[in-house]
Amino acid sequence: QVQLVESGGGLVQPGGSLRLSCAPSGSIFSIYAMGWYRQAPGKQRELVATITRGGTINYAQPVKGRFTISRDNAKSTVYLQMNSLTPEDTAVYYCNAQSTMSYWGRGTLVTVSL
């Protein structure tokens, strides 16, 4: 079993920045990839970015050049640095971990508004 705890969401003005954190616990040795997804009101959950154990990174097109996913190997924590935020980035952001199963955090709300 893997548990995921997200933090770092909040309200930010357009053009601002936020950093999300995802701290896994439990059977973290079994995790081979982690990532961030988001779900805006009335929309389906979508990929934001992923990072594998080997360091391969993938970004969704809407966030390329603005968001950066990274990992602290010592803490097994994954971060999502979000810059140049726009109202279209408003969503609940979920952390995901892939091992023998897919695990999800409870989500953290990011609101981009004046």
Structural notes for this entry:
The chain has 114 residues and is mainly β. The chain has strands at residues 2-7, 10-12, 18-26, 33-39, 46-52, 57-59, 67-72, 77-82, 91-98, 102-104, 108-112. Strands 2, 4, 5, 6, 9, 10 and 11 form a seven-stranded mixed β-sheet that branches. β4 (33-39) and β5 (46-52) form a beta hairpin. The termini are far apart.
Q: Percent of residues in helical segments?
A: under 10%
C-alpha termini separation: 40 Å
Give the helix tally: 0
Query: Count the strands?
Result: 11
Shape annotation: globular
Q: Class by helix and strand content?
A: mainly beta
Percent of residues in beta strands?
A: over 45%
Give the SSE string: EEEEEEEEEEE
